Structure to design on (473 residues):
């Protein structure tokens, strides 16, 4: 029997297990607890067997979420000892943040030093990026403050002294001074993300001002560091299922299932907020720029599907660039705007981070003023530049930033359990936003071709073969 045929079995067992658990908890049916437990573990066994065949990190995170929750429910005393697994994962994540943020920001700024040659187009693109991501930020803040998805989570069992935010009164001058680093090594060691950002921006500007001959070696070195840190992130993420399982086992063992209800409430909030962003911001922008909406939607359907399924913007980049050319955006504009947008135009990620950051504060019982929320989310928006292409990299940024703002980490692990589902949506919106940005800048430049007819791919292939043959001979 092929493992692929286990899918219906897994679904049936899942339905039975959930139904039995719900009916028993509400005393609709009287069922022996051992029978209910056996049914749930039977579902998990089938889930685990199917996961062996899938070999997907996202799928294994989902499996570990269920296993961790079940361990926390059935063996609470043992489950609280599994917090060490989530702590290990958190420590590994904290080692990533400073070099990743530094490298991606420097490459994103100094790597586009040719903006002076690009001229008006570069300025227009950057203005558009910042305006749209700001809208995304405010929609995210409005949504989470409206639904208050993190409010009401029981903190029974949480060590208040170590986990809860300690109120610190600071003057405006203290806050401003805290942004600027006095010693970059100290900033890295203390996890002061915003100070690392400021240092990276100034360093990148200085690097961009250096002559090309001197700039190139340093830029190549930092680009290599950026690539290594992305791979480092991927390696650390292999530990994510274990960290998720341990975190959820600890959470459920200490606080029961109540936090998971809030997590799914947050998931619903995110999807509604992203839909609102698409309808209230991106659609009017497309209409104002006179982008043919029907053709645009048809063109981006495939790259957006790739982004949604793989949770990686980079996986969708080649097809997204081809799609924009196919509707009449010149190649030179696509080649500049889209890669730049992957660093500076993270609509879905920005909206998600604003939701998640405030959710952490709400879960911890901290009432942040609107000004405090803006400072925290603005920091997240800066630190997230350049990491949209890596699955779950936003969680790395979120974990490090809430720590630097003296917020507890345990609510982040509640989010981690459903992050795969959130990552799909925010990554898809990132791709949609960058595709639209490319078309809008082309229209702004007066170079969008309204009645563009894409060349026949068969003819293009034949032409490419002919060119290749000429070079070969």
């Amino acid at each position: 029997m092929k493992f692929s045929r286990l899918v219906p079995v897994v679904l049936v067992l899942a339905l039975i297990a959930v139904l039995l658990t719900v009916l028993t908890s509400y005393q609709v049916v009287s069922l022996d607890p051992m029978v209910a437990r056996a049914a749930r573990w039977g579902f998990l066994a089938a889930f685990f067997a199917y996961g062996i065949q899938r070999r997907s990190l996202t799928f294994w995170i989902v499996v570990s979420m269920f296993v961790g929750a079940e361990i926390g429910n059935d063996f609470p005393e043992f489950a609280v000892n599994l917090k060490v697994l989530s702590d290990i994962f958190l420590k590994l994540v904290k080692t990533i943040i400073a070099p990743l943020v530094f490298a991606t920001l420097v490459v994103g700024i100094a790597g586009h030093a040719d903006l002076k040659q690009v001229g008006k187009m570069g300025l227009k693109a950057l203005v558009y990026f910042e305006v749209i991501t700001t809208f995304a930020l405010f929609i995210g803040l409005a949504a989470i403050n409206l639904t208050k998805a993190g409010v009401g989570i029981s903190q029974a069992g949480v060590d208040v002294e170590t986990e809860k935010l300690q109120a610190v009164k600071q003057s405006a001058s203290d806050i401003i001074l805290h942004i600027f680093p006095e010693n970059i090594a100290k900033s890295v060691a203390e996890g002061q993300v915003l100070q690392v950002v400021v240092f990276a921006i100034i360093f990148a500007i200085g690097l961009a001002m250096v002559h090309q001959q001197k700039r190139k070696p340093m830029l190549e070195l930092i680009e290599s560091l950026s690539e290594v840190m992305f791979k480092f992130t991927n390696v650390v993420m292999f530990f994510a299922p274990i960290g998720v399982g341990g975190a959820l086992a600890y959470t459920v063992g200490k606080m029961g299932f109540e936090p998971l209800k809030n997590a799914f409430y947050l998931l619903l909030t995110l999807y509604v907020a992203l839909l609102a962003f698409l309808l209230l911001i991106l659609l009017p922008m497309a209409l104002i720029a006179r982008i043919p909406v029907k053709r645009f939607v048809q063109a981006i359907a495939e790259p957006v599907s790739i982004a949604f399924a793989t949770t990686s913007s980079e996986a969708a980049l080649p097809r997204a660039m081809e799609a924009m050319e196919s509707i009449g955006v010149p190649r030179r504009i696509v080649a500049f705007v889209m890669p730049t947008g992957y660093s500076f135009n993270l609509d879905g990620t920005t909206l998600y981070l604003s939701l998640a950051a405030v959710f952490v504060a709400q879960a911890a019982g901290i009432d942040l003023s609107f000004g405090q929320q803006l400072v925290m989310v603005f920091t997240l928006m800066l630190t997230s530049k350049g990491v949209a292409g890596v699955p779950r990299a936003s969680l790395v940024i979120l974990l490090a930033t809430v720590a630097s703002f003296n917020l507890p980490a345990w609510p982040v692990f509640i989010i981690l359990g459903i992050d795969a589902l959130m990552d799909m949506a925010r990554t898809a919106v990132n791709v949609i936003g960058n595709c639209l940005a490319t078309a809008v800048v082309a229209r702004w430049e007066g170079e969008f071709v309204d009645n563009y007819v894409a060349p026949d791919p068969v003819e293009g292939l034949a032409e490419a073969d002919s060119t290749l043959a000429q070079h070969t001979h």
User: Anything to note?
Assistant: Residues 258-288 form the longest helix (31 residues). The CA atoms of residues 110 and 206 lie 8 Å apart. Residues 160-170, 457-465 have pLDDT under 50 and may be disordered. The chain has two domains: 3-81, 83-158+174-444.
